[in-house]
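Work package 3, deliverable 3.1, input record:
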Amino acid sequence: MSKVALVTGGSRGIGAAISKALKDAGYTVAANYAGNDDAAAAFTEETGIKTYKWSVADYDACAEGIKKVEEELGPIAVLVNNAGITRDSMFHKMTAQQWKEVIDTNLTGLFNMTHPVWNGMRDRKFGRIVNISSVNGQKGQAGQANYSAAKAGDIGFTRALAQEGARAGITVNAIAPGYIGTEMVRAIDEKVLNERIIPQIPVGRLGEPEEIARAVVFLASDEAGFITGSTISANGGQFFG
Ligand code: CAA
């Protein structure tokens, strides 16, 4: 029986590449998504990967969704907390709503998803949690006080939980991608992207989603059992965190 992997935000952007790479590596993959039904349907059509709709910002929805995935596919061995949103704004213009939405999804979402799978992983003495943080959680980014705070929080969460999971065969790691060529990054004003951001990336280009997916497959593998609490930076040399 192949292991089951659940990827949040798994039908678009970096998450879609992660879902596909895990499937190619032999996992039975469930891709969670929050809103875009058309993209999810197209993704299933293209890949054969089942999609499940709920918001990671809602604890009860996560618990219910995870139960459904486990009933249909089997116990979750690998959880990839990838779902994330941006509500960029300079701080003097940022609203409480923009702050809350990003913290609820990008930080509390990790609690909401990990808590319902944690006891099962402890009982089975095996688990792989991979949290997708960001270079901007490591270095901070003007216009992203909300996002940077949440993504830095993801790294703290990773380090704390790694210590709790270690004796139970559960590893908890983070990947901190830099600027990857997805819709999220392409939504940045072109002038800002070309004049302020890309010049700060030593390799001189945006990353590819597959370059993040490869690191997830590695951390999910049985062979990565001694790596826990780490953060892999994958950012083209932009920041050495
Ligand atoms: N540091 C310091 N000051 C800065 C700055 C920076 N990096 N960037 C902008 N400013 C200043 C500007 O110089 C300007 O100052 P003045 O008013 O004195 O001229 C002021 O801030 C306002 O700048 P903008 O005109 O750009 O303001 P805006 O309201 O039109 O746009 C913004 C603000 C939406 C945040 C825009 O600057 C932006 O999109 N920045 C990029 C943010 C970013 O990197 N987001 C990443 C999204 S992708 C992602 O999150 C994935 C991932 O993990 C990497």
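Residues 145-165 form the longest helix (21 residues).
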